[in-house]
Amino acid sequence: MLAVIVGGGRGGSYLAKDLQAQGYQVTVVDRRPEV
């Protein structure tokens, strides 16, 4: 299974670890605007 998390940050990384523990392949896409 594949999960794509858009955002990242503390909540995103927690969610990624939780999904990886369940056997998902996790891709985190952190789109922050360039300042």
Shape: elongated
Could you estimate the helical fraction of the residues in percent?
Answer: 25-40%
Order of neighbouring strands in the sheet with most strands: 1-2
Number of helices: 1
Order of helix and strand elements from N to C terminus: EHE
Largest sheet: 2 strands, parallel
- Tell me the fraction of residues in β-strands, as a range: 25-35%
Report mean pLDDT, rounded to a whole number.
Answer: 81
Number of strands: 2
Straight-line distance between termini:
35 Å
Q: Residue ranges: pLDDT <50 for 5 or more in a row? A: none
Give the helix/strand class.
alpha+beta
For the CA atoms, what is the radius of gyration? 10 Å
Oligomer: single chain
Give a brief rundown of this model.
With 35 residues, this protein is of the alpha+beta class.
Q: Could you describe the 3D structure shown?
A:
The protein is an alpha+beta fold. The chain has a two-stranded parallel sheet. The longest helix is centred in the middle third of the chain and has 13 residues. The chain is elongated and about 35 Å long.
Write the layout of secondary structure elements.
Elements: E1 2-6, H1 9-21, E2 25-29
Parallel strand pairs: 1-2
